[in-house]
Write the structure tokens for this entry.
Amino acid sequence: MKNFFSLAIDGKEVKAEKGTTILEVARANKIDIPTLCYNENMNPYGGCRICMVEITKGGRRKLVTSCAYPAEEGLEVVTNNERIRKVRGMLLELLLPLADTGPIRELAEKYGVTKSRFEAKPTDCILCGLCVRYCAEVKKANAVCFTGRGTNRDISPMPEIAPDICPLCQECNSLCPGGRIVELTQDRHLLSIPISKRKTMR
Amino acid sequence: MVEKLKSASELMHLRKRIITNRDPNKSVVTICIGTGCTALGARKVVEVLGEEIKTKNLKERVEVKQTGCLGFCELGPRVIIYPEGISYFKVKPEDIPEIVSKTIIKKDVVKRLLYVDHATGESVRKLEDVPFYKDQLRLLLEKNAKIDPKNVEDYIALGGYDALAKTLFEMTPEQVVEVVKKSNLRGRGGGGFLTGRKWETTRNAPGESKYVIANCDEGDPGAFMDRSIVEGNPHSVIEGLMIGAYAIRAHEGFIYVREEYPLAVENVNIALKQAQEYGLLGENILGSGFNFTIRVHRGAGAFVSGESSALISAIEGTVGEPKPKYVHAAIKGLWGKPTCLNNVKTWAYVPLIILKGADWFRSIGTKNSSGTAIFSLVGKVNNTGLVEVPMGITLRSLIYKIGGGIKDGKKFKAVQTGGPSGGFIPEQYLDTPVDFDELSKVGSMMGSGGMIVMDEDTCIVDVTRYYADFLSDESCGKCVPCREGLKQIVGILNRICAGSGREEDLKTLYDLSELLRDASLCALGSTAANPVTTSSLYFRDEYEEHIRKKRCPSKVCRDLIAYYIRPESCQACMICLRNCAVKAISGEKSIVHVIDQEKCVKCGMCIEVCPFDAIEILSPAVPPTASYGIKVALTKRRK
Amino acid sequence: MKCSRGRKKPFFVGLRMTKEERSILDKIEEKVGLSKSESLLKGLEILSEYYSLGLDQPPLSFELRRLEEEAIQHAEALKRIRRREDALKEIIHELRVIDQIVDRYNEDKNALIQILIDIQNRFNWISKTAVIWISERLEIPTSFIYQIATFYKFFTLTPRGRHLVRVCLGTACHVRGGPKVMEAVERTLSVKHGDVTSDGMFSLERVNCLGCCALGPVMVVDGDYHGNLKPADVGKVLSKYS
């Protein structure tokens, strides 16, 4: 079988097909790597950094995002060690104040992060981009987009225009890990409800 | 209408024609109208000079050339009169009649406009003798004094486009790559990657369409080298880009200029148009059969877009956010095609290397960093501006010899290299030679060349906070470590500077720095930790003073200082009272003035205007309790 | 509130048309050969002529009404209350200029940022109408344009003041007292950076390095650079622009 090669994940030799990422290979082999912003129907985003793994290539070790890094012949991958646990713990400590919900809380507990040093600012949104990318890549409706930059980064529909574009499919609901996208109560666009007027938590 | 040049010999003939048409005895007055000198009124000087020449009927004998930046902006406007090479600084429009009558006509000097060497007290006539310029080796910048960027013939007259002719007619693409590899040229954008190797990878990457890009998105605050090159000598970049394109087999190039540099955008567009007219760009360049076009892409105000993958995204018309760089741009870059992206300075070195050879370039600088480096030496030094020096010069030489030492005789505290991605270098490392590797060893980096000198009056915690705030503001916000991590770092540093620092803050800063370094998506995030790490390593005591004693040793952090009028020195002149923007000072004639600490916003105006040096800054912010109504002890001693 | 569920992308985003309205425009395109955008522009021109003739009840009743509302909102955003026909004329003019700019770049989608820069330079803001129009001409989703317009500092989605004041807060300027100059400007103009003065005369922005580091602190007003500034100089420099 050409286009197949082998690499090692956590000491276990696995076969991979050309053009796949480390994450895809791991999942195909039932090796668990946590993710937050990844979804198999969309292009990898690389924003949450939770899926980072340590690879050894040419004698050098570095951390890469498994959702985006292409699998290569002879690669040595470690999915969980001291360094990675520290990184994931720190990331969750930063995310918990934003959205203390289902998937995030679960991951936090798993990595021993019970509370955060940082002040809570529950925006219910970790800016994982799943809703934006789903609407753009899968539904091709582009109803919601990222706005701003850096600390001002947010998601928003373009005011007054989104009602005409949003297909009201409600499929972005189930994707949202933070809880910002809630069930529609009426024919209203999801994000048109200001955060302060909404009930958080599902 | 000019005739397009169709061969190397036509270029040579054109050059000969230009030179013979120029009268060597004609006076040429060059005035810098770069952004810096323009801010100091250079355009008015040009205007007045033009009028004076007209009224005195000297048009036949004098030519005025508006040139680009030579880097010593502080002493602008700068006027140099050739062929004698007499250099005048801080020229005002009123000085023009004297310059014309004395220097141009009588060939005599106007002494007060010459540079005075602080050490010897003597005036210096020529540019090369000015201490600021003496130890420099201005390979890239020296032509800025002699060419009008809006006139391609000036560039041609000085040998411009000869390197291109040699490349197209005497060398194969492989030979060009070999020369660049042999020269050991490393990327001047900050990464320091071997340019020759990058070219080779791009050339060998599979695919027909390839691109070359020149990065002039110089966002490092405190740096303006790229601006000076693109404003003052755009053709050097264009020529370098073309030689690279020939070597890599690319036929389209881009020059990315940030819109905050409008003069650079203007000049590069004019240069492209002229190069096209002369047959030096476009189809069948110099009759060689090689085709190459360049487009200018303007940045729209995003520092992060200077990162190579972000820049490529911006040119593609999408948001200028970095992408995970697991496949190099050299293999899959712009629109998925092999792309070679280099800083404008890197491209500008290429024509020189082609003409003078790889060995010549290697002979300058250190073993692993060849050639010169351009630094923007700014901050608390006496001579601020751009300096181009061979790699390997020590920081001490740069700051004390060329920079003229610390301003106002204050004490050196630290020098920050590499922009917001670099680190603070304290006094004990002043003898570090400047090159890519040595600077990394002490925890900083070369970066694009910014070099900020700080003295005893600079608060390191405040500057660290400034950098963290800048990076947080400019972050694209895509990845969690940078967006959330930097936000928290800024929050902590703000608290420390406001007097609410906590013991555990230093540990939290350390943890966040590690996260940034390990988990960021791009270099903005991963290097953002450098100012924090180096400052807490070398200046831990300043942090501890802020946190434990609520004291800012440099008396900068607003919430940790108090302005206090010393009753024994106050002469009750009412000047500070009148100038206080928030009316925080009370007092009257012969009654000592008192500052109301509740109202004082610490703007510094009172200290600036007090003629008796009676106001001091105290830290911690615990001034003695104010006593109103004290009578003044007159001493009449003005500062 | 209808939406485009299941339909092709609506022809003019922001307008909701009935089937009959859409078929009228289809017929116009067929018979006369004008594109849909062109027909709308022509309709607006006719509407403004109607008003200037003093006629109150134009026979054209459909989407032009909505565009008319947009035009009036647009004029109000520019702090200029006008008569209806002038508001319409203004928006038509703006749309035609945008057309010219887009044509200059050959309708190249990749040139979106360059087009937006030209529009910001020309009109001093990126209006909602501009976003809709560019989306139409370049066939780019509006949310995408919105993302670009909010990502880059150069673009503003509200009108800038008549004079643009940018104070440099780059490192060299910071170390030389830039923040105090910024405060002095904020005090003199009674505005915070990032905002416009209440009379619409000045916009104050912070810039991260203008490249004049040897002359810090530096401020640019409408393209005029002022270097070596002290807080005390600010009042004098700004008074030249009132």
About this structure: The domain at 372-455 of chain B is CATH 3.10.20.600 (Ubiquitin-like (UB roll)).
